[in-house]
Design goal:
alpha/beta; 8-stranded parallel beta barrel; two-stranded antiparallel ribbon; 14 strands; binds iron/sulfur cluster; metal-binding; iron
């Protein structure tokens, strides 16, 4: 299907479309919206998006494993034109993402976003779960943990065990492990100090097997940046599975003056068997995009720091950690939005693209996590309250329409100038 390439088309959100209760009509509206918006990503590859500086990645969450939500989120954001969907390195989660992508492509013939799995080389905020025994909670506790959780991952509602179609067990009380993504907001609010942090490291052998499957296009390795020994150990353990990847991403926090030397050490570890493109995910303020406008400042500051660094290693730069609807404006203020440069590493670029064109965007793109899940989550929760928690969003096109409008409102500004 030929899609019109235009960023100027207004999204049709007429009241008439919203209130139309007929599913067929709603599904047609979904197709019309996607066609009329005609985002560049619908006809260009994820790699081209990185080079142009309009790459958008959805972060499902390195620890988020609610496969029903992940499937529906992947479907909605594929329709909205994301270039990549990043998820936990777990086979059932990967299956859920792929199912969402393929159903979106059944609705309208879009190009496929890359699927990226996230792993860690050491203890990391993104790879932890909250845990407590609800039996230990005092009966008179006002349960502030429930209200502070952005993932609806703490429940005390008995007799509401959801009817999941996937084979997972959801506890009725306490932390719903699959939904907890480790943001840590519940830890300090418990007046009785009942909540524990459980950290874990993804198994390298399982990860390596996943990378060799046709289902996975890219990997992201989260590293603390404090030292590079653990990165080297993981890279060695992954072995030749890295050659199956289209993109290798390294996610790291801002380590100040030592960041560039850490990046160079990591790159020199990867370089001997790096056969794909690589990307640096600049994790400004981890897992905070849903908090508000101020959350994006740290990732913008990180971007400015990296853009001005002369001796950084090759690789695309992509923002994360605190990214939200204010991130585009922040980049524009700093003159970094879709700003193209001629790379100093032209040999590297040429060897990987087969093209002599070494121009690329200074900032390749952005990853949206908690904020992206929050805005579409409202539509998902609305659907689930009417149709059950296992509802598939394509079966309820009026909810799909609402979710898609939210997703496009986030993705489109980054895709267009
Ligand atoms: S760590 Fe975050 S996501 Fe997990 S239960 Fe606590 S508040 Fe919810
Ligand atoms: S705040 Fe602490 S004590 Fe209260 S319900 Fe939550 S975990 Fe239990």
């Amino acid at each position: 299907m030929a899609l019109r390439i235009s960023c100027n088309t207004q999204i049709s959100t007429s009241p008439q479309a919203k209130v139309d209760s007929r599913s067929k009509k709603c599904l047609q509206n979904v197709k019309s919206i996607v066609n009329n918006v005609g985002l560049p990503s619908m006809s260009s590859s994820p790699l081209e998006a990185l080079k142009r500086g309009n790459w958008v990645k959805l972060i499902c969450g390195a620890s988020f494993e609610d496969v029903v939500d992940i499937r529906n989120l992947s479907l909605v954001y594929t329709l909205a034109g994301v270039d990549c969907i990043d998820c936990a390195a777990d086979a059932s989660v990967v299956n859920a993402v792929n199912e969402g992508i393929e159903i979106a492509r059944d609705i309208i013939n879009l190009r496929r976003p890359w699927l990226m799995i996230s792993v860690n080389d050491d203890k990391d905020l993104h790879f932890r779960k909250a845990e407590f025994d609800p039996e230990d909670c005092p009966a008179d506790c006002s349960r502030p943990c429930v209200n502070v959780c952005p993932a609806n991952a703490i429940s005390f509602q008995e007799n509401t065990a959801p009817e999941y179609s996937f084979d997972i067990q959801i506890p009725r009380d306490g932390v719903i492990t699959e939904r907890c993504y480790g943001c840590g907001r519940c830890f300090p609010v418990c007046p009785y100090d009942k909540i524990r942090e459980v950290t874990y490291i993804r198994d390298a052998t399982t990860t390596s097997d996943l990378m060799k499957s046709d289902d996975v296009d890219a990997i992201e390795i989260h590293t603390s940046g404090r030292q590079t020994t653990t990165f080297r150990e993981l890279w060695t353990a992954l072995g030749d599975s890295v050659k199956y990847m289209k993109l290798i991403a390294v996610s790291l926090p801002n380590g100040g003056d030592s960041t560039i030397s850490t990046m160079n050490e990591i790159f020199s570890t990867m370089e001997p068997n790096l056969q794909s493109f690589n990307l640096w995910q600049l994790d400004g303020r981890p897992m905070s995009g849903d908090i508000g406008r101020g959350a994006t400042k740290e990732t913008i500051a990180f971007a400015v720091q990296m853009a001005n660094a002369r001796d950084r290693p090759p690789g695309f730069l992509q923002l994360a950690g605190g990214t939200n609807a204010h991130t585009v404006d922040g980049l524009k203020r700093e003159g970094l939005f879709q700003t193209t440069i001629v790379t100093e590493n032209s040999d590297y670029a040429t060897s990987r693209t087969g093209s002599a064109d070494s121009s690329q965007a200074l900032i390749g793109g952005v990853a949206y996590g908690g904020y992206a899940r929050k805005i579409v989550g409202k539509a998902l929760r609305g659907m689930q309250s009417q149709h059950g928690v296992a509802a598939c969003i394509e079966d309820h096109p009026q909810h799909l329409l609402l979710a898609l409008e939210e997703a496009l409102a986030l993705v489109r500004p980054f895709k267009c100038r």
